[in-house]
Specification:
Low-confidence stretches: none
Number of helices: 4
Number of strands: 0
Radius of gyration: 10 Å
Mean pLDDT: 93
Helix content: over 70%
Structural class: mainly alpha
Number of domains: 1
């Protein structure tokens, strides 16, 4: 499954070490929206933690 543009942005910020709050501020969204995007992206990627994607 392909990630949406927003999911790619959120995952990118997470991989850089941004918190959900920092990512939300950068993208003009709420922290809960960031959490939902990240959760959806991780589900599509078959992972449940961003640390798994760093390796």
């Amino acid at each position: 499954m392909d990630l949406s543009l927003r999911e790619r942005q959120v995952v990118g910020y997470a991989l850089l070490g941004f918190t959900n709050k920092q990512t939300a501020y950068a993208l003009g969204l709420t922290p809960s929206a960031i959490s939902m995007c990240l959760r959806g992206a991780l589900r599509k990627l078959g992972s449940n933690r961003i640390e798994d994607l760093r390796s």
